[in-house]
Amino acid sequence: MRSFHPGASKAPMKFRMPTAENFVPIRLDLDIDGQRFKDAFTWNPNDPDSEVNNFAKRTVKDLKLPPTFVTQIAQSIQTQLAEFHSYEGQEMHIKEKIVPLKIDLRVNNTVIRDQFLWDISNLESDPEEFARTFCKDLDIGDPEVGPAIAVSIREQLYEIATQSISSARETRVGKKGRRGADIVANSFVFCSKAGNTVDLGKLFGSKGSVIRKRKEWYLYEPIVDILSNEEVGALDAREELNARLKRKLDEKEESFQTRYSHG
Amino acid sequence: MPPSSEGSDLADRELYSIPSSASWFRWDDIDDTERRCLPEFFDGSSTSRNPRVYKEYRDFIISKYREDPTKCITFTEIRKSMIGDVGYLHKVFLFLEKWGLINFGVKVPKISVEDAGPKVVVEEGPPADVQVVPACIPQRKLVGMASSVGGENGFKLPPLTSYSDVFGDWLPKRGLVCGICGDQSAAGGYESLQDGVMVCSKCSKNNSQADGRTTEDSNHQVDDDAKAEGSANNVISAWTDAETLLLLEAVLKHGDDWALIAQHVRTKSKLDCIARLIQLPFGEHILGSINGTCANSNLITQATDVKKQSLINEPPQELIKTDLHIQTDEKDLVEEPMAERPLKRRCLPSFVHVADSLIKQVAGFSTVAGAQIATAAADAAIVALCSENISARKHFSINKYGENDLLYTNNDHNSGLKIEDQDMELHKQTVVSEKSLSATAFQVRAAIATALGAVAARAKLLADQEEREIELLMASIIEVQLRKIQCKIKHFEELESMMEHEYTLLQKVKESTLEEWVTVLQQAFQAGIPRWSDDELPKPFTTM
To answer: What residue ranges carry the coiled-coil annotation (chain A) (predicted)?
Structure first.
């Protein structure tokens, strides 16, 4: 049924997060003088810039971090906001796309793994509500889990949104090509668990069924795991090691590029 | 039992309570209320949202809830079963909940997760379709349900007996275990076979078909005992290797006499021994062969030559298992084991005839391997055995003589054999029982060695042949490849020569054209036409 697409190619619109609230996911990962600070949250891009500094100061005060963090945090947030703003003037082409989103994160002692489908043309979608329902239904005690889920969803949506900007497509390859590569930007298809593209028309047309096969239910079922403190410690240590190694590799790669890239 | 599909009897309908405000709800229709509250499914704004899709979602959610109306169904439980944007799914869910079509009057419990206990879900749990569905779920009427939401029970594979089942230790307090399929909870009840083993009803049917031999060679002694202890307790300690060994020895020695066997294996009862033997890989085989030869003994009562004739003429396939297919052209080999059997039968009636069945196996192997190989193997085996043990030599010397006779001549040595037999008889009767026993053992070992030798020779030949074949194929492949390359080279050479040819032609044409040009110019000069500028000179000539 490829000829008939109601509302298929919507008119291109200005770039924005495909959610009800146009909030940006911000991720901080700073390592200064051996001290590591990681955080992820949602930011309203319409907030005045002064808010960034206030937030940075407050965070450093609350968490008793060395004061050098203030500028670093503020800078990081501003960089990410600037990037977001740079997309804002451009047009993006959202076609009807139902993509699988994955959650794979660890918040303190809780490990969450989940995958589900998200319609990115649904501009009324609400990751926060999804996260709230998630935590309520699964009775998750840790209050930090919900926001983490919401941020993760937003990040994936942000990635998809930026990929659908026509002008930015060429510059995609370099930096962001590594992550988010599994989001396929084809119209009317989405990837099921095995990576097979499933024809939307077939599923939602007259002959398909939108009820998933029973044997696939377990794939889309959330998995919540509570770790013991030792396991958490071990995982933290491993992550730190990985992050350090990655940083070293990145530095090496950058120096390599600057050395051998032509003017 | 899968729920009945649409349009079946009304008797299955159960009553569910929904608020009166939701009385507009119909299974087979979509009401305006729904269209109003969930417009995104009805405005044609996307292919993934249409009335059919909405109806499927709705029906599925409501049916899933009604499987257990006492429990509050959560969105997270149900979203995994539906394909579509979770935002819209949530909207449908909330709509149904708001109108009381689901979770009506159910108090939200503190912990409402279907999958797991408190908070932890084990990651590597079994997939959903292997979970045990509680039997108390009554059959619900699901009118209008899409047939894709099928039966409640997942597909359950039959249990397989594995190595661990056979050789592993019996766990105590395990309940009745079927002797054949290992099924512990057979619904059809258990029956006891003639061998005194408990089998579930399914297997008993299969067993009576497949094991023709056990039914026809039934040993009725054991029946009564088994039935008396039919529902015996199963608190057994595990079978150690020592006990298993004792069991096997006892079986070889006493055959079917379970009382003696149980006596031999002191720590286990009769029933245990029987059951254990069944469990072992060749346990039934041993039993069957024992029973088989009991039947055989009834037939072998005549004189040897008559017996031999009858044996040669009709290979005893009815008596032995079908896997020993003795061909008529190997009858000289048949004679060897068959002849030995009457010797043994008459002289060693009290001993077990497992050896006989092994001899039959030797015959089988020999037919597979070929006459010459088998004889060579037999000779080699006996020689080896004799060199190993001197007392065997004496025993075998007579046999060997007899064997050689048998092998080289066909049916003409009946008399000779008769004499041999009588000699053997005398010889045997004077021998102490232990010696006879050892003779039997030697014969058994000889037979086994023969069989092994024959098979090994055959295997080596096969392996050699395979290797040669592989080499041949490799060579042919390489040859083909080389030929291909040769063809290509030739082709390219041809092309090259063609190109060169054309090149020379081209050069000639060029030259001739140049000459013409020059001539034209000369004529032009002679005619007095002024020289024109150089940039009109054609390019190819300037770059020459």
So the answer is: none
Give chain B's radius of gyration (CA, Å): 44
Domain covering B20-99 assigned CATH 1.10.3720.10 in the classification: no
Residues of B in contact with A141 (CB under 8 A): 119
- Each domain of chain B, given as residue ranges in start order, spans 20-99, 241-283, 358-397+438-526
Choose the closest CB to A137 out of B46, B76, B121. Answer: B76
**What is the predicted ipTM?**
0.77
Mean pLDDT of B4-9: 42
Q: Find the closest chain A residue to B90 by CA distance.
A: A130
pTM, rounded to two decimals:
0.43
Closest CA to A188 of A84, A99, A82: A99
Report the sign of the C-alpha dihedral through residues B270, B272, B275, B277, in that order. negative
Asked if A218 lies within 8 A of B87 by C-beta distance, the reply is no
CATH fold match for the domains B20-99 and B241-283: yes
Residues from chain A contacting residue B80 (CB–CB below 8 Å): 116, 212, 217-222
Cα–Cα distance, B488 to B496 (Å, whole number): 12
CB B363 within 8 A of CB B333: yes
Q: In this complex, do A7 and B44 lie within 8 Å of one another by their Cβ atoms?
A: yes
Nearest to A75 by CA among A28, A36, A35: A28
pLDDT digits (tens, 9 = 90+) for A16-36: 888 888 888 999 888 888 788
Could you tell me the two tokens for B138? 């009554």
CATH for B241-283 is 1.10.10.60
Sequence-separated (6 or more) residues with CB below 8 Å from residue B370: B458
- Say whether residue A217 is in contact with chain B using an 8 A CB cutoff: yes
